[in-house]
Amino acid sequence: MAKHIGIVACSAEGAALCYRTLCQEAASFLGEHMHPEVSMHTYPLGTYMEHIRCGDWAGVADLMLSSVKKLAAIGAQLAICPDNTIHQAFPLVAPASPIPWLHIAEVVAQEAQARMFQTLAILGTKYLMTGPVYPSVLERYGIGYRIPDPADREEIDRIIFSELVHGIFRDESRLYFNRAIQKMKDRGCDGVALACTEIPLIVDPADCPLPTLDSTRLLAKAALQKAIQD
Prior knowledge:
Strand content: 5-15%
CATH class of the largest domain: Alpha Beta
Oligomer: single chain
Radius of gyration: 17 Å
Number of helices: 10
């Protein structure tokens, strides 16, 4: 029996992509229409944002812990969070959690290492791009990183919160992402981490200037493998 996976969600579109990926990828391991038991809990994104905007990461951790405790209470044995930004609270969450977690940046770093990337462009919310989540992990893997310039960070953040989390995917925004990624390529990056769980829904690897690391789908696949192997 595969382990019961608990999804601690934050924004709807990214969480939905994570859930769909878990279910779709499982068939190749478990058979047609089969996947591990999956449960999800989420507080409103607005509740999270009240804490994020003022840098209250302990408050974010409290929400994540409340979610994971609810999931554990109904049988979840492994937790994941398909939201890169709130992983800034992960060091406060993991030691107090009743069940083990996978860390989204660890999964991305492992894939980057396997694909022999040297320097990653990091795209996400402004909190993620200027925060410690990816630097703290990539440094341990010996992988360099760069973030967009301030103007691009602001516009990327605006697109995420005014469009992507609402399920709005405009071609103009896709092209903006591509231009920002091209700048990162020109600065020496050889891969790009799509480190907001909604970005993979708009960036097309087929026309992206850099090879992509889809944090959402990579986390879902890693959780599936962990659930089955254990």
